[in-house]
Amino acid sequence: MPALRLGATAPDFAAETTTGKFASFHEFIGSNWAILFSHPADFTPVCTTELGEVARILPEFEKRGVKVIGLSCNELKSHADWVKDIDEVNNVSVTFPIIADPTREIAKTYDMLDEQDLTNVDAKGIPFTVRSVFIIDPAKKIRLTLQYPASTGRQFNEVLRVIDSLQLGDKHKITTPANWTPGSKVIVHPSVSTDEARKMFPNGVDVVKPYLRFTTL
Predict the structure, then answer these.
(1) Neighbours of 102 (CB within 10 A)
(2) Phi-psi region for residue 46, left (φ > 0), alpha (ψ -120 to 50) or beta?
(3) Is 113 within a domain?
């Protein structure tokens, strides 16, 4: 199976989820962006906090045109029962779908399985997933991959920050510097000459080095 590198097409699949079945992940995404994120198992402490946090900030994903979908290696009935706990513990309502992947077929396709923690297995000894994140654009291309160990919860504000950076870079010929946050200075893309940049960016161009030029949008 080829590696899922940045720019590769996200593999399509059919799935059962907590909000219903779909025959095509690509059709589920439609013309939107998407975030697919995996969880080792239902009724686990870190996952319960993560799904609650995503439910809490779901409007932030929605206003960016991003569909959210989780994945956990359990049956659909287990997911439904677990969602009740997530809602109660976090005082939220989980409305986004969670994929049921007890056979790990989707997890295998997306190379999510844990090979680091030998205790992170089910009763049959099959590895659970690590905490994978995929940001996928409307063209179904993978734009970001992250993998956290099962023991470490994710920072979802960072996921939102990357989405903002990617969407801004798709709209303008810019990249974003270290620790960038929305509204702060961006970097003129290397493919744009300084003369072109001064025409493109009315707020001015600060030339630090010929290859490092800042502007604001």
Answers:
(1) 15
(2) alpha
(3) yes
